[in-house]
Amino acid sequence: MHLYLHVPFCKKACHYCDFHFVTNTSRKTEMVAAMVKELELQKDFLKQKSLKTIYFGGGTPSLLEFADFELIFSKIKSIYDLSQIEEITLEANPDDISLENIKTWKHFGVNRISLGIQTFDESALNFMNRAHTRADAITSLEMLIADGLPNISVDLIYSLIDQNGELGHEVLKQDLEIIAKYNLPHVSAYNLTIENKTVLGAWKKQGKLKEVEDEYAEEQFNILTKTLKELGYEQYEVSNFAKNGAYAVHNTSYWKNKAYLGIGPSAHSYDLEKRFANVANNAKYIKALDAGHLATQEEILSITDKVNDYILCGLRTIWGINISILKEIAGEVPKEFYEALNEFIMNGWVTMRTQNIVITEKGRIFSDRITSSLFFE
Fold it and tell me: What sign does the CA torsion over 32, 196, 363, 220 have?
């Protein structure tokens, strides 16, 4: 079973981010207390009590202090069996990496750090309003490796822009050179998208900024995938690359359609039949939990919803989707599915491995088209 905890606080508002967070941390103690209450209220959500993964996301969970972790883990340990735990991931920003914090994280069993570097380019960091510098990013990597938390996943953003347009391919190439130098086990790389409710979205609306052309984004993606492949990384999911099988166990559970519990404002949960979404408002979340009830809405999934979720997530990975599982969910696979599948196989975009349907390297650029064509109606 899998547990996600959303910590909705950040030092600064990055210009591209539309996740739920606030920069005022004055209610952090109340928030941690509310999350502990939600853990208690949701103690029967997961059918099995043995956790395989725990993931602290955000926001910036590296802002939590020893006392915060102590409260959270005390409650987790009172409910769940952690003897079979494989992965405890903490999202962290480079400016939060210190000897004291590393010691705290290790004390509570954190064995994987997802480090939000985004880029090592100073001008791009300033443009995105990141709280750290290039020097912070490099120092943080060296500290984590030297002090016993070398299982690091680095977040990168490509197709970077500034107000004068695209930054050029050299920035991405230089970022990848630094990744190569430190021989990191895992890289998550995301194409910069301009979301409406962000500073970049406002600049775009005002005509101060425009997104890069599709052709440029495709060139960036090709540089990224080609370079990481040459460095020995396996692209096991569209945006995720691992060396020596160092897959993100928690995130892989999402792509493989496993149940998970989400704790905290804006967190989502899934029990294989329904999806649940917590309110994305700190004050409303705290108020609800203080009153002893959940601040969540549920969505009952239709058979079509379940099938299409499985197709959408599975085709992003090297494992693909399984015909037998499709039949198990849907009962029957329509002929239109097989007709579209056969066309993609003939084009070399998709391959069949026994019962598994997998998008090929040639077909990755068409993955959105392939996925939507295979959806059930």
Answer: negative
22, 268, 115, 19 alpha-carbon torsion, rounded to 10°: -40
**Is position 275 within any domain?**
no
Residues spanned by the domain of 196: 2-254
Residue 165 in this model has a pLDDT that exceeds 80: no
Let me know if residue 297 belongs to a domain.
Answer: no
301 φ/ψ angles, rounded to the nearest 5 degrees: -90, 135
Within this chain, do residues 367 and 232 fall inside the same structural domain, yes or no? no
Between CA 343 and CA 340 the distance in angstroms is 5
Beta-strand relationship, 260-263 and 240-242: unpaired
CATH of the domain at 244: 3.20.20.70
- Under 8 Å CB-to-CB from 113, ≥6 apart: which residues? 89, 90, 92, 105, 144, 149, 151, 152, 153
Task: Round to whole Å and give the CA distance between 295 and 34.
Answer: 11
pTM: 0.94
* Cβ neighbours for 84, distance < 8 A, ≥ 6 positions apart: 50, 51, 52
| Pair (92, 32) in one structural domain | yes
CATH number at residue 361: 1.10.10.920
30 and 161 co-located in one domain: yes
pLDDT one-digit tens code per residue, 254-283: 999 999 999 999 999 999 999 999 999 999
For residues 22-39, average pLDDT = 96
For the chain, the domain total comes to 2
Q: List the one residue out of 300, 302, 315 whose CA is nearest residue 257.
A: 315
Same domain, 250 and 307: no
Classify residue 26 as exposed, middle or buried by CB count within 10 Å of its CB (0-12, 13-18, 19+).
Answer: exposed
At CB < 8 A and 24+ separation, what contacts does 223-232 make? 223/158, 223/169, 223/172, 223/173, 223/176, 224/156, 224/158, 224/172, 224/176, 224/189, 225/364, 227/173, 227/176, 228/176, 228/179, 228/187, 228/189, 231/176, 231/179, 231/180
Angle at 98 between CA 97 and CA 102, to 5 degrees: 85
Sign of the CA dihedral 158, 164, 169, 171? negative
HSE value, Cβ hemisphere, 13 Å, CA-based, for 115: 33
